[in-house]
Design brief:
Helix content: under 10%
Radius of gyration: 31 Å
Number of strands: 31
Oligomer: single chain
Largest sheet: 22 strands, antiparallel, barrel
Number of helices: 3
Structural class: mainly beta
């Protein structure tokens, strides 16, 4: 009986296990069942109700995009730093510990860059850098004579950052030096009958050398304002000491703060800024203080971005005994239509302009000693269309209007040789308006072939100065095109051409001051016109081994008479050969 019971129990157990095995097997079959999703192709796109966007999103770029190109001219009123060369690099964001580059050029030029950091540490970053640019070859003057010329920039600094969750403490200290030696002999056509020995045609060695130095430091603590769902804040401090060989010294201070947060679709953003500079030595009677508060209301919903506000700015100039109160509008509006194909936008903003000696010398290193300009203001408004089309094509069409109060224009001064500001530049202040119509298009195919095209027309109007001068350095138009081909990260080849319309510079004889109001000197202004020209350039990068690249760059290959400053030609046809690597 017991054996029968055991037999029956075993049989029942086997049946249960069998059923369990079948059930488990069915579960396994179900868990590994795969249904392949439908992936549309170009040929099958017509089967879909909505045609898929096949935009090329592959953009193969090296970790560091490094280019050197002599500056031909500036087409903006804003003060810009002027160095012998422009550098575009990304040493602070690369994941590499270091970057080094050096080159030689003809006419004789040199460059060297070194960046080091401990980028593998995501919480603490420490690094340093050294930069050098030099141009020592002869340049051709307005009289078509070759003259010795020197243009050199050197800089070094250290930077660091410490991150705690969402907060970051970062700072930088550094020093840079700019040295330029004037060259060339010129005499304006309007003065051809004047006794040559009374003009500063060939300044002596002391007058013809300009040497600037700047030591600076900055520190910041706060958020990066990338995620506004929580309260973001930040405070920063920037200081600098600047001097030049001719006895101009000044100290600059900038303290700023900002808070911002979004509450669903709505938010706020408030910034405050205090800027000042204090003159030393020959600039002891000069100085300026400015304060600004910038409240913003923000709205974000679906494809709509909106920001509105009114900025208040106060300024006081010690040298000119002038105080101003300004209210600037702020608008930032964009709506994304058709999934990025069409984005209408409108913007408006305003700010004070810096008239310190440091700011003037950065824009024009041949400025007369101890020259300062009053603090001005500018308001600009822009409307346009931007977006992408035809897969890999992006575009921007816009109209910009800018109004400037107490805008400074550089004017070439002619004085007897040996005078305080012989053969240098002063400034004339005047109200002005600029109208810009622009079109910019970029095409990139499969991350290999890229093309850029841009065209701008500039209209200009001043209150007292001749309007056809275009602000003293701005062309009537410019058109640029650039092509680049990348072959499997083995080599990169590119070419560019930029046509600059005619420009007219201001000139003046017998000035008794370096800072003048336009209404007082209009009758003494002379004009020097520079014809339209073209700037041709090429670049070729070849990977030699691992991360080592050989690069060749050619600038102004057409040998055009390019002018950054009146009567001082930019470098003629030139080439550079160098090596660069990341490690």
């Amino acid at each position: 009986m017991k054996q029968g019971i055991i037999y029956i129990a075993a049989l029942v157990g086997a049946l249960i296990l069998g059923v369990g095995s079948v059930s488990a097997q069915e579960d396994i079959n179900k868990s590994i069942e795969v249904t392949k999703a439908y992936v549309p192709t170009i040929n099958g796109a017509t089967k879909l109700i909505i045609r898929p966007r096949m935009d090329d999103t592959v953009r193969l770029r090296p970790d560091i995009d490094y280019q050197i190109k002599p500056v031909a001219c500036y087409t903006t009123f804003a003060s810009k730093q002027i160095n012998p060369a422009q550098i575009k690099a990304s040493p602070y964001t690369t994941n590499n510990r270091g970057f080094v580059s050096f080159s030689l050029g003809y006419p004789f030029q040199t460059s060297f860059d070194l960046y080091l950091n401990n980028r593998e540490n995501s919480k603490r970053i420490l690094g340093g850098y050294i930069n050098h640019r030099g141009s020592f070859g002869k340049r051709r003057s307005d009289l078509d004579t070759l003259q010795n010329a020197l243009s050199m920039y050197n800089g070094a600094g250290f930077y660091g950052a410490q991150r705690w969750n969402n907060l970051t403490l970062k700072g930088e200290v550094g020093y840079n030096n700019r040295v330029l030696h004037r060259y060339g002999a010129f005499i304006p056509a309007t003065l051809s009958g004047t006794a040559i020995d009374t003009l500063a045609l060939l300044p002596d060695s002391k007058q013809s050398l300009v040497d600037y130095g700047k030591a600076f430091g900055n520190i910041y603590f706060g958020d990066d304002f990338s995620e506004l769902s929580r309260l973001n804040f930040g405070v920063g401090l920037n200081t600098a000491y600047s001097y030049d060989l001719r006895g101009s010294e000044m100290v600059a201070l900038d303290v700023n703060g900002r808070i911002a947060q979004m509450f669903g679709y709505h938010g706020f953003d408030v910034g405050v800024d205090y800027r000042s500079y204090y003159g030393i030595a020959h600039l002891a009677q000069h100085g300026s203080q400015a304060f600004a508060v910038r409240p913003r209301y923000m709205f974000r919903k679906n494809n709509i971005r909106l920001g509105v506000g009114l900025d208040y700015a106060y300024s006081h100039d010690k040298a000119f005994n002038a105080t101003s109160h300004n209210v600037f509008p702020h608008l930032d509006f964009a709506i994304n239509l058709l999934d990025g194909y069409l984005i209408p936008y409108a913007s408006a903003s305003g700010d004070l302009t810096d008239g310190s000696f440091e700011a003037l010398s950065r824009e024009n290193p041949f400025i007369a000693p101890h020259t300062v300009a009053p603090t001005g203001s500018q308001i600009q408004a822009e409307v346009g269309l931007a977006g992408s089309a035809l897969q890999s094509l992006s575009y921007k069409l816009y109209f910009n209007f800018t109004h400037l109060s107490d805008m400074y224009h550089f004017v070439a001064l002619y004085k007897p040789q040996g005078s305080e500001f012989a053969d240098s530049f002063g400034v004339i202040t005047d109200d002005a308006q600029r109208y810009t119509v622009g079109a910019e298009i970029e095409y990139l195919y499969a991350g290999k072939l890229g093309a850029k095209l841009n065209a701008h027309y500039y209209g200009y109007d001043a209150k007292y100065l001749p309007t056809k001068s275009g602000g003293g350095s701005m062309p009537s138009y410019d058109v640029g095109v650039a092509l680049e081909y990348r072959h499997k990260e083995k080599f990169i080849i590119g070419a560019s051409a930029k046509v600059l319309g005619a420009r007219t510079f201001y000139e003046m004889v017998g000035a008794t001051s370096t800072t003048m109001a336009a209404q007082d000197v209009t009758s003494s202004i002379l004009l020097n016109q520079v014809p339209a020209c073209v700037d041709l350039g090429v670049n070729f990068d070849l990977r030699l081994h691992k991360e080592w690249w050989l690069y060749i760059q050619g600038g102004n290959l057409a040998g055009s008479k390019l002018y950054t400053y009146n009567h001082y030609r930019s470098l003629g046809a030139n080439v550079r050969l160098g090596l660069k690597t990341t490690f």
